[in-house]
Design brief:
alpha/beta, single chain, five-stranded mixed β-sheet, globular, Rossmann fold
Length: 116
């Protein structure tokens, strides 16, 4: 399976970029929120990651999937223990997705920069 990963800040045009650049490839968006939901429902980090990769594989057509996530690792480290754990787990899962992705873009103001 070929993964195209797109990250960037909130409301920076990631979905629009994906639709323009990869119109025929299925998209799994808001990975960061899926991870959050899993953690809120008691999943371990390993279970959350397995769940995400299962979802990625589940929507892959022709072996390709666009995966979109907000980049939540910048800014102030949250005081709340759950929010801090969520941020850390999301960072690690996105890092693992990036390792497996054959293309990786960061989008700012609707402009995608290819990192991989």
């Amino acid at each position: 399976m070929n993964i195209i990963l797109i990250t960037g800040g909130a409301f920076q045009g990631k979905k629009g970029f994906a639709e323009k650049e990869f119109p025929a490839i299925p998209v799994l968006s808001d990975i960061h929120l899926l991870i959050r939901d899993g953690l809120l429902n008691g999943m371990t980090e390993e279970e959350a990651e397995a769940d995400i990769f299962s979802k990625i594989e589940g929507i892959a057509e022709s072996g390709q999937t666009v995966v979109i996530s907000d980049d939540i690792g910048f800014g102030i480290v949250p005081i709340d223990p759950f929010e801090r754990r969520y941020r850390e787990v999301t960072g690690r899962i996105i890092t693992d997705i990036a390792k497996k992705a054959y293309q990786f873009f960061r989008v700012t103001a609707g402009i995608g920069e290819r990192l991989k």
